[in-house]
Please model this.
Amino acid sequence: MADTFTLHLKVWRQAGPDQDGKLVDYTVDNVNEHMSFLEMLDVLNEQIVAEGREEPIEFDYDCREGICGSCDLVINGRAHGPKAMTCTCQLHMRNYSDGDTIVIEPFRAKGFPVIKDLVVDRSAFDRIIEAGGYVSVRTGAAPDANSIPIEKSVADTAFDYATCIGCGACVAACPNSSASLFTGAKLAHLNRLPQGEPERKRRTVAMVEQMEKEGFGDCSNYAECEAVCPKGISISAIAEMRRNYMKAAFAGEEL
Amino acid sequence: MASFLKALKSQVGRKLLTGITGLGLIIFIIFHLLGNLQLFGDAQAFNEYTYTLESLGWILYILEAGLVVAFLLHAYLGISIWLKRRRSRPNGYEKYQSKGGPSHQTWASRSMIFTGTVLLIFLVTHISTFKFGATETIMLNGHEARDLKTLVINTFQNPLYAFGYTAVMVLLGFHLGHGFWSAFTSLSMKHTQYSALIYSVGIVFAILMAVGFLFIPLYIYFAGPDAALISY
Model:
């Protein structure tokens, strides 16, 4: 029988995008140490529904196995909670103990407006991808494996950046609400592969411009984004983005 | 060219300019400290040094103009980034803390706007005290020169100046503690292999600069006007 314990939560409740929100106190009994953070919230929601006094808490999730980038809570002031390289869904209650108080807030940024409670609109990231986060090629039938030779180290680095799941924790944790790590990771992934090379300049300029249009702040090299990134993506991606952007501007790429 | 100028106004360009001006100012303060250390040289070494600088004529004016531009641009960019930061997160967190690990979020990096503003205000008093301060005229190797050394020594007999300068130089150390590393990163010189080294070098450099600059007013204050080192 696993240990069960009691937690005190302060959860951000906001009825809609234009309403004022506030932290509301809840107590959850019978928290099991093997529960994930989201399962603990499920238990709380069942409690709220059973009491029938208010609507359950809205929060985002999908895969609950750390690969989709949907879960997005700021837990006690840290995006995705206290553990490095962990999504909220992969954070387990064994990291907490009886009687702890946990503050739960949504990702906060102008580019991520709150929809309801803990759910924010992250479509700004979709628009950054639409601006250039793709490779324009004639698709046709699947090409033969290894028909385009790519050095192993290049493929590995591209893969490291491709692990970005677009959760937006980088923006949430950045003191300036910058989206540079997300945009930089997507660019570093696509720009270094031969398939992405022909569109490198255009892509870099378009995605950086879109990032700015969405109202995200400047990067001041705090590297807090790297600390909260569930995939541990390095801010080297940001340096690479800057280099490619200025090179493209030097080359006279249309801005 | 138009697109390049536009790029300089982008987020990437603004940080690039902040980094370039920051590195320019870093080079300036290295020479400034080396110059200040002439106070500890021969009796007239400091006055000879300042005389040489002032007799550079138009070259000095160009260097000074460059410094003014670098300072103002650096300050303008820093303030605009800080203002943008407030617009980018209109509703702040009830609770916020750093996750540590690879994060470089420290008091130094969070307080760039504070340390920078103090340094900017300090600069105004500093220039009016010394560059435009009243000095005696002395004869130095057959030509007239300003006795800046005596002005420096007299100024730092005042505890307000001696300890005020010391406090500001501690803040300069913090500003450089984040600024040095950040400038290289803004200039895209970020590589997993070298960035830890650049960060450490930056911290050592910041400490060296702060200690080097604050040692002078403190030494003069405690040594008094009659100390052997500073008597003629």
Chain B touches chain A through 50 residues (CB under 8 Å). The CA atoms of residues 98 and 183 of chain B lie 22 Å apart.
